[in-house]
Specification:
The structure is a single chain. The protein has 16 helices and 9 strands. The longest helix has 16 residues, at 216-231. The chain is an alpha/beta fold and 333 residues long. 40% of the residues lie in helices and 12% in strands.
Length: 333
C-alpha cells in the first residue's frame, strides 16, 4: 500500500511555506493532505506560522505571540520566496482548514508560546470541530502534555508525538551533504558553511548582525531559543538535554506515556539511522509519520518509500508523487 503524501507547510518547495498559496498548490498537485503549524496571537487569533518570529518569512520583526492579528495581516509573507507570491498574508487556521476540508488528512502542529494560553488546545479543537474537520485532522506536537490535553477533551481526536532526537540535533558536515547530493537548507549554516566560513562569520560580526536586535543572527537564535523553551516549559538546559537522551529510544519513550497517541513522527534522519524504526513502530500499533528537517532529496524520499511507512510528510509532494507513480524526477537528486 502506498503511503499518504502530506505536504509539509503546504507545497513549501514550490510556494512560500504555511501560506494559502502553498496549501492550494499541494491540493492541486494531488497530495493526500497538508501539514501546518498553529500559533496564537496576542488578541487570541489562531494563525499558521512555523517560527515564533516573522523575520525569516516577512522581512520585518514581530513576535507572533505578542502581536495583534490585524498588524500581522499587513505583512508580506510571500515575497521572500518569489516576487510572484508578493502579498501573501499569514493565514488563519479556519482559512487553511477550508482548503484542506476535503483532503484525507490535515496535520496541525500545536505551537503555543510557553503555557501562557491555558485554553490554546480547546480553541484549536473548537475550530477544527466548527469547520467539520474532526474526522481528517491529526493534532501533532513536540509538547506531549498538549497531546494529553487533546485526548482528555476529545479521546477520538487523533494525535502524533513528534520527535527530534539527540542524534538528529547534530547536523552532518556540509561535505557529507555534498557527497550524498543533499542540500543544506538552514539559512544560518548556509552563511557560515564552506571554505569561506571564517570570512563570512567575521563579515557578519563586523556588520553588527550579532549585536543588533534586528540583525539576522539575533532573530535566528532567538526564535530557536523560544522554540526550545516552549517545547520544554519549566526545564533548564540540562533537563532538556536529558529529555533528548531519553528520546533516542523513540518507541520506548512513547510507550511510557500515560495517555494514548496514534502516530509517532520521527525525522527522516532518525529513520535512516534506525532503519527498523518504522517497522517496529507499526508492529507496536503506531502509525509512523517521518518528517523532513531540511529540504529533502529524491534519494531521501525513495529510501523512505522502501521503508513502507503509512504516511510521509514532505516539502516536495510533487517529487514524492512522481516517485510513487514511477515517473521521472521532477528535480535532481
Amino acid at each position: 500500500m502506498q503511503p499518504l503524501v502530506i505536504a509539509h507547510r503546504g507545497a513549501s518547495n514550490l510556494a512560500p511555506e504555511n501560506t494559502l498559496a502553498a496549501f492550494r498548490t499541494a491540493k492541486a498537485l494531488g497530495a493526500d493532505g497538508i501539514e501546518m503549524d498553529v500559533q496564537m496571537t496576542r488578541d487570541k487569533h489562531l494563525v499558521i506560522a512555523h517560527d515564533f518570529v516573522t523575520d525569516r518569512v516577512a522581512g520585518v520583526h514581530r513576535d507572533i505571540f505578542d502581536a495583534d492579528f490585524d498588524d500581522l495581516r499587513t505583512l508580506d509573507f510571500g515575497s521572500w520566496k518569489s516576487p510572484e507570491f508578493a502579498g501573501e498574508k499569514i493565514p488563519t487556521l479556519e482559512e487553511v482548514l477550508e482548503v484542506g476540508r476535503e483532503m484525507e488528512m490535515i496535520q496541525i502542529e500545536l505551537k503555543p508560546y510557553f503555557d501562557r494560553d491555558k485554553d490554546f488546545v480547546d480553541r484549536v479543537l473548537d475550530t477544527v470541530v466548527s469547520m467539520g474537520c474532526e474526522k481528517n485532522a491529526v493534532l501533532t506536537s513536540f509538547q506531549y502534555d498538549l497531546l494529553r490535553q487533546v485526548k482528555e477533551r476529545m479521546p477520538e481526536m487523533r494525535t502524533a508525538a513528534l520527535f527530534l532526537n539527540m542524534e538528529s540535533c547534530f547536523c552532518p558536515p556540509p561535505a557529507l551533504w555534498t557527497d550524498l547530493g543533499l542540500t543544506n537548507g538552514d539559512p544560518l549554516l548556509d552563511k557560515l558553511s564552506g571554505p569561506q566560513s571564517a570570512a563570512a562569520a567575521l563579515s557578519l560580526m563586523e556588520s553588527g548582525e550579532l549585536e543588533e536586535e534586528n540583525g539576522f543572527l539575533y532573530q535566528y537564535v532567538r526564535d530557536r531559543y523560544l522554540a526550545l523553551l516552549s517545547n520544554f516549559p519549566g526545564q533548564d538546559l540540562l533537563e532538556i538535554l536529558q529529555d533528548y537522551v531519553h528520546q533516542i529510544d523513540t518507541l520506548g519513550y512513547v510507550q511510557q506515556f500515560d495517555f494514548p497517541v496514534d502516530y509517532i513522527g520521527p525525522t527522516y534522519y532518525g529513520c535512516f539511522r534506525d532503519t527498523s524504526l518504522i517497522q517496529r513502530g507499526s508492529a507496536a500499533g503506531f502509525g509512523m509519520v517521518p518528517w523532513p528537517m531540511f529540504p529533502e532529496s529524491r534519494r531521501d524520499l525513495r529510501s523512505l518509500v522502501q521503508m513502507q511507512p503509512e504516511i510521509i510528510v514532505t516539502n516536495k509532494p510533487e517529487e514524492l508523487i512522481s516517485i510513487l507513480h514511477g515517473k521521472n524526477a521532477v528535480t535532481s537528486e
